[in-house]
Amino acid sequence: MSPIKALIFDQDGVIIDTERDGHRVAFNQTFREFGYDFQWDVDEYHELLQVAGGKERMRHYLHTKGFGVEVKPEEEDDLIKRMHKRKTEIFIGLVESGQLPLRPGVRRLMKEAKEAGLVLGICTTSNERAAHAVAYNILKDIEFDFVLAGDVVSKKKPDPEIYNLALERTGLQPDECIVIEDSRNGVLAAQAAGMHIVATTNGYTEKEDLSPADIIVTCLGDPDGVRCELKKGDIPDYDGVLYLKQLLDYFS
Fold first, then answer.
1. pTM over 0.90, yes/no
2. Tens of pLDDT along 172-197?
3. 82 and 161: one domain?
4. For 138-172, what is each residue's pLDDT tens digit?
5. Per the residue annotation, which of 10, 17, 214, 222 is the catalytic one?
6. Which domain holds residue 209?
7. Does 1 map to a domain?
8. Number of separate domains in the chain
9. Buried b (16+ CB within 10 A) or exposed e, 95-124
10. Residue where one domain finishes, among candidates 55, 79, 96
């Protein structure tokens, strides 16, 4: 195997547990502001997460269940665009307010990667503004080599386009990269790109089939904080915290 040269993070559900208490909340507030009489509850939003991308999620819901009032075909694109813009503003406000804390071990592992001289990046289908709010505000003490987000690619995960773009931008080979993902779509995207995969589960993805991942943990863990369970992978002396050295040894 080639030596590991990069560590790449997905954002939603990996860096911050954003889906249930961030994106879902922002979508529902947007629906209210636009005058629609429906909300996405926790279980329904879980089902909608199988559709990658916020604009795509709203469009899917419109086409399958409707918004409760007629939306003319010629008005659909503009409506979805305006709603998604407002939803992003609400979500960014939640992030910047500090209401959505980092998941355990994220900042620690990122710092370990930078200290080791690895390329550090983010690949997310989240809107670019939302991704930048996380990378350059919440994680402003971390120097990222790249942040790829939203419409920078035409195809969402599980298509590998965003990871292939990361390889193109960095000049790295797939087996030189470790990806941290949380969902089946994300895991499949990284697998299709030929990268090593660590899956960190959350309340929405813990029951998804993440078996293509090389390592599965309930989170990354912190030595002085939350410790997590190892679901897949043979890591000697694992004590509830996943360290960079362990990953480098595992994939070498």
1. no
2. 999 999 999 999 999 999 999 999 99
3. no
4. 999 999 999 999 889 999 899 999 999 999 999 99
5. 10
6. 6-17+102-250
7. no
8. 2
9. beeeebeebbbbbbbbebbbeeebbbbbbb
10. 96
